[in-house]
Amino acid sequence: MLGRLNHVAIAVPDLAAATAIYRDTLGAAVSQPQALPEHGVTVVFVELPNAKVELLEPLGEASPIAAFLEKSPSGGIHHICYEVNDILAARDRLKAAGARVVGDGEPKIGAHGKPVLFLHPKDFAGTLVELEQV
Amino acid sequence: MLGRLNHVAIAVPDLAAATAIYRDTLGAAVSQPQALPEHGVTVVFVELPNAKVELLEPLGEASPIAAFLEKSPSGGIHHICYEVNDILAARDRLKAAGARVVGDGEPKIGAHGKPVLFLHPKDFAGTLVELEQV
Q1: Which residue among the candidates B38, B57, B70, B130 is catalytic per the annotation?
Q2: Least CB-packed of A34, B33, B82, B100 within 10 Å?
């Protein structure tokens, strides 16, 4: 069921500083920052040859990464995103296995314009997992 | 300088349980567990089409992931590994930029039999970064 590793998302308190680390210190190709108010983040994409790293900074009042940064003020890896071909089939398989999907279980349109679901860290080795249909 | 995303390492308290999640619940291809006493971990490789996820369980008295699991008993993403072509050149560039390398700054032979270095989370957006020469 599981396809490619699509991206690793790193929550950061200072997007400009984190972007400079990846662009200047590590020598990676980075995008311009993109504000995604409907997702409560501003994102910079770090383009690696086989996957992306996404640097996320909170945007707005109720950012979904605000609580994470309160606990880890220096930042840290927030979630990992895997690709699936059929997100509804994936959801049904996971629920049948007793795993929890975050929210109401209905896929939302994610930051790449594709249907996504988040899986509960308690059922996935302590890791917040995003599934994206590709 | 930065090449492919080689792997994401997830520290877990129960390797058999985490392996079952990835193999049975998520439907991924997983390796047999491999004890790496010189690295203080037992590892299961989750083989995705473009990258690996490594599930790490502490092994022995002084496992490098023991402190992490004390803070996060359910597990969590421990580090992210990027590939570089020349690890000594990478180290020198990072040190010149003022970034800290963990330990004495000399590459060690990592779990894949290749030279690796770990970079200090405080200088890399709160994230423990491994560089592996490929």
Answers
A1: B130
A2: A34
Give the dihedral of Cα atoms B123, A128, A37, B4; nearest 10 deg: 50
Average pLDDT, chain B: 95
- List, in order, residues 6 or more apart from B125 with CB less than 8 Å away: A10, A12, A17, A18, A21, A55, A74, A75, A76
* From A1, A93, A126, residue closest to B74, measured CB to CB: A126
- Are A61 and B113 spatial neighbours (Cβ–Cβ below 8 Å)? no
CB contact under 8 A, B77 and A72: no
Tell me, what's the pLDDT at A39?
93
Per domain, the residue ranges of chain A are: 5-133
Query: For domain B5-133, which CATH number applies: 3.30.365.10, 3.10.180.10, 2.60.40.730, 3.30.430.20?
Result: 3.10.180.10
Nearest CA in chain A to B119: A26
Whole-number pLDDT of residue A58: 98
Express each pLDDT in A21-78 by its tens digit: 999 999 999 999 999 999 999 999 999 999 999 999 999 989 999 999 999 999 999 9
Q: For the segment B67-110, what is each residue's pLDDT rounded down to a tens digit?
A: 999 999 999 999 999 999 999 999 999 999 999 999 999 999 99
- Minimal C-alpha gap between B120 and chain A (Å): 12
